[in-house]
Design goal:
about 55% helix; elongated
Amino acid sequence: MPTLVRLLTTIAIIAGVILAIMAALVTFVEPHRRQVDIEIPVRELPQEAATGVAQGSAPAGDAAVAQTAAGADDPAAPTSQPSALELRP
C-alpha cells in the first residue's frame, strides 16, 4: 500500500507541476499576431479545388439559377446559399 500511495503522490506532483507551467505560460506569454502568406501553385491543388467544381456536379451558378427559377413563386422556398444571418455565430 505505501508503494501505491508513493506512486499516486508522485503522479499528482508531476501533474501539478505541468498544470503550473501551463498556467504560467497562459499568464506571462503574449502571442504575437502576424500575417502569413503561403503561395500554393495551382498544379499542386486537387482537380476539384482548382476548378471549383466537384466531379459529377453542376457549377454553383447553375444550381442557384435553377433554385431561383423554382422558388420564384414561393418567397419562403429555401435558397442554396446561406444568408448573412446564418453565417454569424
